[in-house]
Structure formats: structure tokens, C-alpha cells
Please model this.
Amino acid sequence: MPVSKKLLCSIFMASTLSLSVIIISMQVRSVFAEPNFGASGDWGCGSNAGKTVSNIRSHNSPERVFALGDYSYLEEGSSSDDCWLNIISAIKSRTRITIGNHEDDSAEGFSSWMSSFGLSSTYYAFTYGNARIIVMDSDKNSFSSGSSQHSFVKSQLQPASSDSNIKWIIVYIHKPFYTASNSCSSSGCTNTGSVATSLRNGYHAMFDQYGVDVVLAGHVHNYQRTFPIKYDPASPSSPTRTSTATTEYFDPIGQIYVIVGTGGQGIFGLGSKPYFVKYQQDDRFGALDINIENNGYTLAGRYYTNDGVKRDVFTITKTGTAQYNFGPSLSLSGK
Model:
């Protein structure tokens, strides 16, 4: 029996639709299973900040930019936060900020910073691709044990660690958990200061428990990247280094902690490199590129200085089955 033209047309249309669905599915997988992020902090409004923006845009044009605090430095002469917002205009819609010590009160435009980025809380979380991102606040609201922020972070880590769609957990905050000695005079810049001590004691064991992968910070105006480290309750300022590998880590225990305080506002000189730090530099501005690769199995961090040179690289590879969340979260969760 001859096949009618109407039937042939229906078969063709169905085949075309199926092919279109496959192609769209492949495109979604490519975009959202392997997201790309940029990160830097301590920017200022000079030409170096503009170069940092160019640096970030030149590497995979990241879907989200993690701004690690300290932007316009209002009390140092800027009349408003507009100077930094103008500098980052090309990436502002993709930028997610944490509040630093130069944005945390009314004289520094705190309310304006919150409204500019649509925030109702200084700590929040979002999902992009197969990564869960938790943004903490080291400067405006309490982060001590028993605080609302502490409860919030735990509430985000518990489901993320067991969600098959979440492959990576990234935390970022302004002030660091660990640092090498440096020329910054602030107590928040020292490894044994009260801020770092409180952060470590309140969160590092929790991060170990729930499988956080990377912790980013700024405040110290240089770049530092640790080996994978886990919390040492007997000596919290001296974490346990869990690998001696230089760049490639497979199912590591603990997290890699990275300070990217090289957005453009001055440089703090570094002292000797502690045993838990793999790489550090204190003479160039730059940004960290974080790319999810290898069909979702690998997180790659590449630090580029603003002269275009890749100065540091690390990869974390997980050997379990990669899972995907096909699309970014469109909402923020917070206090």
C-alpha cells in the first residue's frame, strides 16, 4: 500500500523534532554541565581593576563572576560605588558579590551595594550547572557558631552534599581561613588572628563533613593557593595537608583554599610560604578562572595575571558518576 504524503510529512516532522530535541539537549549539557566561573577581590577603581575585568572576560567568558569583597573603597576618596560598577559594567549582570570590610557600613554605601545586586541578605546560595555556590559574610553579620549565618551555611551544605545533581560545592567569603604571613597590618590578614581562628573553628570541620571542594577569599592583596587540607582540631592554624601533589588531585580529602586578593587595589608582600600553601605570588594583579571540565568530572582552577600569563593551575577530579542539573538556579536563597 503506498504511503500517503500526509503520513510521510508527519514522519519527517517527527524525525526533525526528535533531532532538534537531541541537539538542544546536547547544547544544554555543554553549557550547564560544564559551567565556567571567574573570581577576584580587592579591586579599587583604578586602571588595574579594568584590566582584571578584561582578564576575566578573555577566559571562557564566565557565566558567573565571584566578587570577593572590597570594591570602590569609598572611605579612600570615591564619592560613590559607581566607579567600580562602571568598571565592571560588561560583567555586572553575571557578578555575585560578597560584602567586604569596605562595604559593610552606611558610610561605605552598604545599602547601595545590596540594592545594586538585588540582595536581601549578606549570605546566600545559588546553583549553577552542577555546582552549588555558598556565599558567606565575614564582615557585616555574625558568622560564629549559633548565629543565623552558621545555621544557614549548614542548611545549605546538608542537602547539597546528598543531591545527585550537585557535583561541586564552592564557598566564597571576603576574609580568609588560612594565609601565609604578609605585610597587611589588619588582624583579618593574619593566620592566627581572631577572624581566621573563628572561621576555621566554626566551619572547616563542617566543610570536611559535607564535602566542600574549594573555598575562595580576598582581603589579603595577593594570590595564595593551598594543597588540599583538612581541619586539625589539635592545632587549627596548622591544617593537615592531605596531598603532596602539585597540580592534580583525585578525590582529595579536604578543600583547596584560594586567596585571590589581586583585583587591582595595591599588593601586600608575602613572607615565607607555609607548608600548606602550594603557590603564592605578590607582584601582579589577576583573576582565577574556574572551569568544570571532563564532562563534569573535573574542576580546573587557572590563575591568570593581567599580563595574560597563567601562573598557577590545579585540577580536582572525582571518580564517581557525574551528575547534572540542566540549568542555572534562577533564585537566591538566604536569610
User: Anything to note?
Assistant: The CA atoms of residues 55 and 306 lie 6 Å apart. The first helix runs from residue 5 to 32. Residues 14-31, 322-331 have pLDDT under 50 and may be disordered.
